[in-house]
């Protein structure tokens, strides 16, 4: 198999291999999962990008890219929840 550092799986139907990160915000990122999660946690607590950049030696654009990738699914979920809440308020009026 071509996966060296991560667990890989093989589709029983088609025989394709894929890593455990396939279909997640971690797909295609080369840093260890634990490190990326640490950066996500720091960002979620409001740690400035410049502080993460200085501490871990990452480029500011890399951190911003990771932040945007992690935020995209959250934005979708938030939008769905807001729409659901608005629909519930409309139903309560009737």
Tell me what the structure shows.
The chain starts with 7 loop residues before the first strand and ends with a helix. Helix content is 57%, strand content 6%. A hairpin with a 6-residue loop joins strand 1 and strand 2. Strands 1-2 form a two-stranded antiparallel ribbon. The chain folds into two domains: 1-30, no CATH class; 31-93, no CATH class. It is mostly helical. It is built from three helices and two strands. The model has no long low-confidence stretch (mean pLDDT 82).
Concise overview:
57% of the residues lie in helices and 6% in strands. By secondary structure, the chain is mainly α.
Question: Any idea how many domains?
Answer: 2
Span of the ends, CA to CA = 59 Å
Number of distinct beta strands: 2
Order of helices and strands: EEHHH
Strand composition percent: 5-15%
In spatial order, strands of the major sheet run 1-2
Unreliably modeled segments: none
Shape: flat
Average pLDDT metric: 82
Helical residue percent?
Answer: 55-70%
What about the largest sheet?
A: 2 strands, antiparallel
* Radius of gyration based on Cα positions: 19 Å
Number of helices: 3
**Structural class by helix and strand composition:** mainly alpha
List the SSEs and their pairings.
Layout: E1 8-10, E2 17-19, H1 33-44, H2 49-56, H3 60-93
Antiparallel strand pairs: 1-2
Short key terms for the protein model shown above:
94 residues; mainly alpha; 2 domains; two-stranded antiparallel sheet; 57% helix; flat
């Amino acid at each position: 198999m071509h996966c060296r550092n991560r667990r890989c799986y093989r589709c029983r139907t088609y025989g394709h291999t894929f890593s455990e990160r396939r279909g997640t915000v971690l797909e295609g990122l080369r840093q260890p999962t634990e490190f990326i999660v640490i950066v996500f946690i720091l960002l979620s607590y409001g740690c400035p990008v410049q502080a993460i950049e200085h501490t871990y030696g990452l480029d500011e654009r890399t951190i911003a890219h990771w932040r945007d990738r992690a935020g995209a699914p959250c934005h979708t979920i938030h939008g769905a929840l807001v729409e659901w809440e608005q629909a519930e308020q409309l139903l309560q009026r009737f």
